[in-house]
């Protein structure tokens, strides 16, 4: 009888893991393997026309104009990542510290800060398109009160990408705020009180005590920000369109991949082989950088 218990436990674990395993296999592993296979073929519409080896990879990386579009989109993803690290996560760090002080109504403020995160990206995109509208948008109306002339924020190449980044910061700042706040709340109150008694102000407390001690939370925030920045699709698609208008100034790898694989109304170009190659390159880049970054950030956690 006792010999049957480990077997029953194993069967029960397999039964519990089966739904998640099947879902991941069907919706994640199988599409990845299919994209890898299809990236080695040329296509006639959505039908493979012949094996071409690494030709699709060569075209998207080294043949103009495809390579120009690839590196332009990649450069914009880098800008998005840096901007979100500085503005979104920097703001989240300060908000988390403010919420840590448990000022009156701090629990309500936690809900308010996190509330935009639960909104759909579609809703956020259309909301900010209305706010940034050049004629009746609230942003231009507010700036007009101080004498600033109206501006087409999403129609100007110099401000379009920044405007979408601003919308993304508003949408997601609540998530890193709560992650960092959770890390701060794990710090012993005795440590913080001792630092206060030694005369440490907020700046010293943040730089020399809190920042090193929340290293695990910082690791989570940095990795998720990187992955999200290079998988960016919903907001630029909703706010600027599939072609990354105006003039490709908001084009990112997600848009370029989708446009290449499935075509668009304006370009009419569709090459599922090149699109699959782009998807594979994006996966390799994100997975590789994430692996290296995790090793570096984990090492920092141990050192502190």
Automatic annotation (TrEMBL):
Chief place of localization: membrane
Keywords: Cell membrane, Membrane, Transmembrane, Transmembrane helix, Transport
Domain ABC transmembrane type-1: 74-293
Subcellular localization(s) per the UniProt record: Cell membrane
Lineage: superkingdom: Bacteria
UniProt membrane topology term: Multi-pass membrane protein
Transmembrane segments: 12-33, 74-99, 111-131, 160-183, 204-227, 277-297
Pfam families: BPD_transp_1
InterPro entries xref list: MetI-like, MetI-like_sf, UgpAE/MalFG_permease
UniProt cross-references to PANTHER family, sorted A to Z: BLL4140 PROTEIN, DIACETYLCHITOBIOSE UPTAKE SYSTEM PERMEASE PROTEIN DASB
Entry's family note: Belongs to the binding-protein-dependent transport system permease family.
Name assigned to this protein: Sugar ABC transporter permease
Phylogenetic lineage: Bacteria, Pseudomonadati, Pseudomonadota, Alphaproteobacteria, Hyphomicrobiales
């Amino acid at each position: 009888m006792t010999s049957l218990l480990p077997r029953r436990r194993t069967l029960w674990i397999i039964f519990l893991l089966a739904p998640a395993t099947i879902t991941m296999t069907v919706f994640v592993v199988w599409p990845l393997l299919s994209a890898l296979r299809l990236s080695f073929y040329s296509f006639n519409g959505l039908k493979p026309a012949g094996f071409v080896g690494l030709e699709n990879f060569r075209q998207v990386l080294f043949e103009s104009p495809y390579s120009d579009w690839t590196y332009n989109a990649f450069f914009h993803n880098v800008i998005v990542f840096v901007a979100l690290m500085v503005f979104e996560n920097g703001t989240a760090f300060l908000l988390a510290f403010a919420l840590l002080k448990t000022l009156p109504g701090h629990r309500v403020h936690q809900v308010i800060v996190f509330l935009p995160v639960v909104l759909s990206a579609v809703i956020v995109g259309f909301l900010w398109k209305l706010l940034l509208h050049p004629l009746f948008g609230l942003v231009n109306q507010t700036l007009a009160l101080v004498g600033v002339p109206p501006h087409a924020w999403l129609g100007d190449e110099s401000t379009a990408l920044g405007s979408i980044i601003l919308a993304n910061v508003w949408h997601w700042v609540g998530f890193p705020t709560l992650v960092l706040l959770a890390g701060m709340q794990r710090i012993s109150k005795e440590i913080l009180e001792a630092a206060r008694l030694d005369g440490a102000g907020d700046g010293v407390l943040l730089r020399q005590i809190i920042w090193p001690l929340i290293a695990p939370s910082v690791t989570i925030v940095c990795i998720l920000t990187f992955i999200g920045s290079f998988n960016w699709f919903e907001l630029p698609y909703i706010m600027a369109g599939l072609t990354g208008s105006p003039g490709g100034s908001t084009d990112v790898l997600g848009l370029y991949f989708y446009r290449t694989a499935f075509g668009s109304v304006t370009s009419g170009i569709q090459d599922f082989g090149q699109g699959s190659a782009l998807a594979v390159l994006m996966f390799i880049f994100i997975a590789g950088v994430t692996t290296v970054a995790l090793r570096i950030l984990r090492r920092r956690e141990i050192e502190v």
